[in-house]
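name: query_chain
kind: protein
chains: 1
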Amino acid sequence: MIESLTSVVRLNRVGWWDLLDIAIVSLLIYELLKLVRRTHAVQILIGGGVIVVLYYASQFTPLQTLDWLIRDMFGYIVFAAIVLFQSDIRRALVHFGRAPFFRYLNRPETTDETIEEIVVALRMLAEQRVGAIIAIEREIGLRNYVESGIPLDAAVSYDLLVSVFRPGAPMHDGAVVIQQDRVAAAACFLPLTVNPRVSRDLGTRHRAAIGLSEETDAVALVVSEETGRLSLVLDGQIEQDLELERLRYRLEALMLHRARLKPREEARPLDA
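structure:
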């Protein structure tokens, strides 16, 4: 019995390339399961698994009608899966594109002056309790979101940012996108998160910031209109009630790739 199993799987022929192949496939499956965990995609995957089981069951049993139905529907199922999983597929590709290897292919473009202008603007907006959301581009481009807003292509300055978000201003609603030390556009539309674990106490701006960070590696900064509190969102996680100095350290560490955080100022886990 053991000899027959050995001859089937050909264990004596397994080499380093086979082990590497198995490791890569295992990693891909693991990352896929992490992405779809606790999302609506889980139920869709279960439904797809049921269809696969029924297909093989119809092959080895005289269920001719079921076999005909599944074979005729299979081509349409592929297109339906692409439509249903479009957001998850996009998120998966972005996730794989964030691998540590690719992070060294790009250089940060943000400067100390830009960060200081942003921090000053956030302080003024928080003191006046003016709602705002600022997205700062990193390695993954935000061109799609820039095109949804009003192009500006202006230098980053605190007075420009405060003017954009002032209540009653034409570009008050929406987000400001910053690319390479330039205010690329304002009044941009960002995707809202569909994560069921996000607190219901978070408003539209916070949900839009989380949604953007789930699809890109951008840093999103939010000023609450109700409380004036500052939040930083990254990789689908939100850090709320930030002090101004801590926010400055976080931005410098993220945008300038510098380890300038003091030991007591190390980044805490972001709670969604």
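note: The radius of gyration is 24 Å.
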